[in-house]
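Support request, please re-run this one:
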Amino acid sequence: MINWREKFVAFLFHFLTTLVIAAAAAALVFLVWYPDPFDAMAGGFKFFLLIISCDLVLGPLLSFVIYNSKKTRRALILDYTIVGIVQFAALAYGIHALQGSRPVYVAFIADRLEVISAGEIDKADLKDGKPPFRTLPTWGPELIGTQRPTDTKEANDLLFSSLEGKDINVLPRYYVPYEAVVDEVKRKAKPIDALERKHRESKPLVAEALADLGVSPADVRWLPVQTRRSFWTALIDVRTWRPVYYLPIDPF
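Re-run finished. Output below.
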């Protein structure tokens, strides 16, 4: 006769154990790799939710199916070892995928900000970058600038490289500290009323952002933000000329 109570206890114990592991993984993903709002920008939240949902459902469900107190201790250990390996492998694969697609830079390029993921940058190109751009950031995306070459030959090389799919955004040799492009940011950043005139639906979002920041429209400008998935809008503090708020508004 099936002991449903024992199976439910096994399911619950497995679920709670998986939940603790999921919480630890979530801390890594959302506090380090995808800090708000990059979880939404880069799609990290949806992907993580898919991974964890599978782990939280399938692992405990298998536990519910295979648990039987009449089995020998050895048989139970073997069963749970197999389930644990499969569950851990699935979680490890998902976390590895998230790690590879995590945003590493927010780069100012020409007239916008671009969110660049780890997977977009070829490791072979890192050696051409100037320090500290020879290694990818570990603790979340860093704000940087880019500088186009002034040498004709190098400019032509960049042009051909872009036609092959490698533009300035994924070539660390053209990365510079953000401070080096602040003057260009000042020229390209636009006043808030220009955004609100073009996109009337942005007014409540802008008003909420200004209230959160405790500033007036005169204290900020805006720039488009490009990601692989969508376009956003960044509010730029006119004192530092750094982004201080991201809005889910396509400014184009």
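The first helix runs from residue 4 to 33. The beta strands are 103-109, 112-117, 142-146, 175-177, 190-191, 220-226, 231-237, 243-247.
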